[in-house]
Amino acid sequence: MILLRESSRLEMKIDLSMIIDNKQDRDPNDGINTKTVWDYMKYYTDPEKDREGVLDIVTGFFSVTGLELLGKHFSPNNEYRMVLAQMVADDQFQDHILDLLNDDCGIENALHLSDAAKNALEFLRREKVHVKAIINAFCHAKLYLFKDNHDPAHNYYVQGSSNLTYAGLGYTPSSNVELNLADTGNSDTYRSLRSWFEEQWTSVAKEKMPEDREKPKGAQIDVKQYFIQEIEKIFRKYTPEEIYYKILFELFNSDLDLDGGIEHRQDMQLLQTSVIWNTLFNYQQKGVISLIKMLRKYNGAILADAVGLGKTFSALAVIKYFQTQNYLTVLLCPKKLEQNWDQYLRRCNSRFEKDEFDYIVRFHTDMQNDRMEERYTDAKLSYLQTRKKILVVIDESHNLRNEKSGRYQELMKKLIQNKEGQENRDVKVLMLSATPINTGLNDVKGQFNLIGHGKDDAFDNDDFGVESLSNLFKDAQTKYTQWCNNPDRTIGGFIATLPPKFFNLTDKLIVARTRKLIEKTLGEDLGFPDKEKPVNIYQGVEHLGKLQTTEEIYQKFDELSLTAYQPSLYLEVNKKKARKGAAKDWDDNVNRERFLVKMMGVLFMKRLESSWYSCMTTVKKVLDVHESTLKLALEFKEKGGNGAILTGGGEGNADFDDEEIDDLMDETYSLRKGTIKLSDMQNLGGFIRNLQMDVNKLKEIYKNFEAFAADYEAGEEKDLKLEELVRILNEKKKAKNKKVVIFTAFADTAQFIFDELKKRGFSRMASASGQNVFTTGAHSTKNFTAVLESFAPYSKLYKEKDWSGMYADAQLDRAKYYDDEKQRWNVSYEKWRELIAQYDTKTLEQVNDGIDILIATDCLSEGQNLQDADTQVNFDIHWNPVRLIQRFGRIDRIGSPNKVIRCVNFWPAKSFEDYLHLETRIQNRMSLMKLVDTETQELDEKFKKMVEDNPLQDKNADRLLEELQNNSISDIESPKTLSLKDFSFETYRQDLLDFLDKNRDVFRRMPNGIFSGFRFDDTLFEKIPESLVAVVGYPRRKQGSNKPYTELYLMCQPVDTHLPATYQELNRAEILEFLRTNKNQKWYVPDWIESNDSERISKLSGILKEWMKSKVPQQATSIILDIAKSHKAGGLFANPKKKKDAKGKLLEEKFKIENFDLIVWEYVSKK
Questions:
Q1: Residue 1133 burial by CB count (10 A; 0-12/13-18/19+): exposed, middle or buried?
Q2: Rounded to whole angstroms, how far apart are CA atoms 192 and 525?
Q3: Higher model confidence: residue 662 or residue 388?
């Protein structure tokens, strides 16, 4: 290329065109130093060189920063004629027109956005700036055509691929590949381009465009005015409320839209006309929609709403939806909840009779030993395996957390997984789970495994990005264990250690809400009663006969070997050899029998906490087993023969009256049932000696119980705990509402209370346990249905049954009593009682044979509506605090007829501290079983899991129990108690859905990079300092791209860089709750943000860079652990210092400010 003086260009017709690609100077010898389009244009349009004229532009897009460049760097006397093409002609860009105007949302660009918008508006409002658009044709041309007013030698053109944006002009570095041809006006090409532009300007481009693109013949607006209005949206002040919903929109918008297929729409219409749907609260309906979406898209979902929020009704609505799609529903539940589900089946006269529910009810315990095939005449397992569309609903799914148990394996392999040739069989899994996490994250891992049909890589896809479910949860469980050992732990502190993909998995598959979140965030009045502060009564068994203290009693239990329950220990010549032989095999009966003995020891202590009578009954059973076993062994020693004893505890096995513990014994620690021949015992003498010692010790303990019982019957001893209960019940007789529910962990205690109260003259009373039902009335005792209906006629009869026939017979005025919109009768409870007196004498008899005192084991602590009562008593403290929450949830329910309810807790000690001491002693019995006088035992992974899964080892129990002393049980939401709701943002997603119903188009068109700010009261959120809250997306988008970000981060970073990042203390839900609480605050930002562009960019960029720095070590820790787990011992990775993300990118390179978009931000400061 030849470089000539500019003055000679007109005289010499030499081709001076050049290629510009925004990457490098293609002609370094031309003296212009032209690498970018902007370099070229600025050189030839420089106002300092008196360059003035007309700049004609054809561009697909322009940005506010592109307009700002023209206004700031070129002469104010220039005239501009701009023709826009794709920006207004292509429908795909209409919903994010403002994002195109933003150029890109790189962090520094976003921080500069408001000033750029202001400058762009000033430029567009000039009289000499004209804008037209090509509306009805596709134009892909990009052209910059300058005509100098004074000297034609300064004319030029740039024609090629570059839009009027930072990236297109090359003003900032970009990965875009551009190609442009540039030349001065002394060429035929220039003249041809000018002719072409004039034709477009006069004949093709339009000054007006439709205000609404969907109505092309409707009202028109000036193209220039249209873009002025759009840019004003960027420049205007956004309220904290708008920013809050913008943040929700960015985080959750992709999850909101359901399948729009006609089949789905028709089925939703069928669901929405059902009785069950119109019974649901608004929050329940939203949850059901989310569950349906999850099941349709991912084939699985977990509903983990807090106690009392109506999981049963929500599940019924989901079942109804899939029933319309011809799915066969199999419902698995604990046997104690059978009636809870059977009552809603068709032809059972429930309130949902018109919905004709048709599902198959089976029990958790059916998932073993082929019971589903052998126990039932209809819907056998073999039949279910042939169905092509099945919905499996698992109630209390947390009880199936042990993936290695036979029950879990049978469920997985025989019902959920498809056999060869059944690839098209569609199995969806809906689980109803407890909210709190008891022993660790492995509580829920098994539930995700069911959704993944047992495949470890089931979630290794674009939706989840989880390469290995096992590795993900191993890492999370390790962090959970470490977190539990920190006395100052916070949920946010734990959650900050988890990788984003963990939340990506949980949030996509869990619906979990609490009452507080629903009432505060969704603003829905659920009608729960108020709760009084719990009454705590400290009274335990202080002495038994000659045993004068609780410590002495417990010591006697500790001295027992319970030899009859561990006969395998005596098959070798001595116990030392037997234990050594079993050291590496935790499936060995020696180890399993030792665990049974440990559990029996716990059983003694927990029964004593409940009642002396219950413990005495257990001691007698265990004594009988040992005496009969000793007799058998002595007879064999004396006479020989074929004597044999049962393994696994035989007839006197542990009876905990608790399904979860029973499941633990049956599954995780199940003994190989069978017999041991006494002739096989090489250590028969030791077996007899130890049996004799245990019999003597058990007799001594039992004599003390007998002495106490005799004195009690003679009136010389009092059961002080029982006397306190009697006092409470006598006071209750004086109250308007006389109904009370008394819970105990053991059937023996329930029967004892019933019998003792009956002796004292109490009537209108019933007792229900898993084995027996007792009543002072004339109720059927085959099951507890009749008893519950008499105890809670409001809940169990009036609210649950279908009374439409009776209302029709009574010829009630439909205008007064019928709700046409919800298609249901609105008849008061008082009116209902009047009607049954006239039309249903059988129900009247049942109501009149009422029950005021209901004594129950935990067979009634789940799934029952008993809100007729306003008082609930815990006669003993269950080993699992969550069970206490479930117990209270029987009366603390939606739509309770009571304004206030209360709870009474009986603690088996003089104080809470004494109680914790007793519980520590119990837990110590379940610690690692170290052998005495033998080699150190080698623990394998299976035993570690056995210990870990043991529900008696809940590290959070003591802390939760302490809270239950002082707080209403249902309201416990401790910052130290982890639950599934901490891994689900469903409440906020639903909050957004409510808002979008009225404002969807507003948010669809709301630009990225916008901001707001507010001042907040630090008494509400003390740990949040002055901070920058922002959503940043990775990787940074190219202009015009609407591709979803692979990673979104919600950050809360202190302005003071010496303070730790707040996001490490708060989880995402807590940040969102902070923003929600303050969404109605007035707009406020410091002056330096509003007025000083350079200081704003510098200071806020610094805050964001600090956040980036903190993310590198945090993510590196998770990645290193993942790598370590993926290699066998010795296969260490080569360079642990070079930490890479899942796609191999160095974290230090990834977490740089130029790699992220700043989507939306908010500056928060204290008042």
A1: middle
A2: 71
A3: 388
pLDDT for residue 249 = 87
Q: Is 138 exposed, middle or buried (0-12, 13-18, 19+ CB in 10 A)?
A: exposed
Token pair for 987: 């409440």
Distance CA 792, CA 800 (A): 11
- Average confidence (pLDDT) over 639-645: 82
Q: Which residue has the tokens 């609505």?
A: 317
> How would you classify the pairing of strands 79-84 and 510-511?
unpaired
Q: Is residue 1158 a contact partner of residue 1007, using CB atoms and an 8 Å limit?
A: no
| Residue 158 zone, left/alpha/beta (φ > 0; ψ -120 to 50; rest) | beta
Task: Return the structure tokens found at 1044.
Answer: 């979803």
The amino acid sitting at 459 is F
Task: Work out the percent of the chain whose per-residue pLDDT is above 70.
Answer: 80
Integer angstrom CA distances of residue 908 from 266, 550, 883, 962: 58, 10, 17, 14
Q: Where do we find the tokens 């990965």?
A: 175
pTM (2 decimals)? 0.75
C-alpha distances (whole Å) from 379 to each of 361, 443, 510 are 10, 30, 30
What's the confidence (pLDDT) of residue 368? 85
Cα–Cα distance for residue pair 876/753, rounded to 1 Å? 12
DSSP state of 204: I
Would you say residue 663 has pLDDT above 60?
no
Q: What CA–CA distances, in Å, run from 976 to 480, 879, 959, 1070?
A: 12, 19, 8, 13
Give the H or E element holding residue 775. Answer: strand 773-775
Q: Dump pLDDT digits (tens) for 299-316.
A: 999 999 888 888 999 999
Given a cut of 60, whether residue 149 has pLDDT beyond it is: yes
Mean pLDDT, residues 643-655: 61
Contact call for residues 220 and 208 (beta carbons, < 8 A): yes
Q: Output phi, psi for 809, to 5 deg.
A: -60, -35
Cα–Cα distance for residue pair 565/652, rounded to 1 Å: 9
**Which positions ≥6 away from 733 have C-beta within 8 Å?**
none
Helix (H, G, I), strand (E, B) or coil at 724: helix
- Rounded to whole angstroms, the Cα distance separating 1008 from 494 reads 31
Q: How would you class 151 by CB atoms within 10 Å of its CB: exposed for 0-12, middle for 13-18, buried for 19 or more?
A: middle
Lowest mean pLDDT among 64-73, 417-426, 783-792: 417-426
What pLDDT does 959 receive? 54
Q: Which two tokens stand for residue 805?
A: 């026939």
CA–CA dist 967, 988 (Å, integer): 26
pLDDT in tens, 71-127: 999 999 999 999 987 665 544 444 444 445 555 556 666 677 778 888 889 999 999
Distance CA 511, CA 305 (A): 7
CA nearest neighbour of 83 among 225, 250, 197, 241? 197
Length of the chain: 1167
Q: Return the CA Rg of the chain.
A: 37
- Residue linked to tokens 């502060």: 533
Q: How confident is the model at residue 493 (pLDDT cuts 50, 70, 90)?
A: confident
Report the range of poorest mean pLDDT among 5-14, 219-228, 581-590. 5-14
Ranking 120-124, 376-380, 386-390, 654-658 by mean pLDDT, the lowest is 654-658
Two structure tokens written together for 539: 């009274």
* pLDDT at 869 exceeding the cut of 80: yes
- Given a contact cutoff of 8 angstroms between Cβ atoms, the answer to whether 319 and 329 are in contact is yes
Measure Cα distances from 118 to 163, 493, 657, 1142 in Å.
21, 41, 73, 41
Give the SS3 label for residue 856.
Answer: strand
Say what angle helices 469-484 and 442-451 make with each other, to 10 degrees.
160
